[in-house]
Predict the structure.
Amino acid sequence: VCCPKDVGGMGIKDSRAWNRAAIMKIGWDMCRRKDSVWTKWCNVVLLKDYNFWVAPVTRACSWSWRNILQIRKFLIHKVLYEVKNGNTFSLWFDPWFLGASIADLYGMRVIQVSGIPRNAKISSVIRVGRWDWPILRVLTEIINSTAVIHLPTGSDKVHWRRKDDIFSLHEAWMAFIPQYPAVSWTHMAWFPRRIPKHSFCFWLTFRDAHKTLDKLYRVGVV
């Protein structure tokens, strides 16, 4: 029932999945640092000195803030960080490096050994439009990986899924519902100027869900 019509559902949105999609929209605003009073308030009051991606979920978190932080594990697979001047993104904690953060891939030790502050921006390892990492053995793999990342001019940008994509609440909702193959009969049940009762009867027929006498007999109702 709570699936898109083209896969055999009725197009009724599952409230739990829709709520998660709405929460993901808030998480999306947080990670791209939307210029709004609410986002600025969250950064100052709730995040404080933490990066959004590593802020801990504690017992002191409100229900709404806890849900926003818990949605990060889904959101991280939907965002694409494009590094340009590096003035906005966290060097260690934003997922700009191969779809993840350097801290996630290499641990906290690389931060300690590098001598670069925890709150450093990517711009701290960029000079005149080129990568300028400290020459350290612990950073060798990172240096080699970033060497192929082009640094265009302009400000850093966060994209939804792919470059130039725009966040869609519908696409976010689709990420939380089961994925089924499309059915061939959907246009026979759902079409413009349809009679809702007839469409519902067609839907029951294609789903083999009519409460016919033989079915009721098998379950002992009649």
Observations:
- The longest strand covers residues 79-82.
- The chain has a mean pLDDT of 88.
- The chain has three domains: 1-77, 79-160, 184-222.
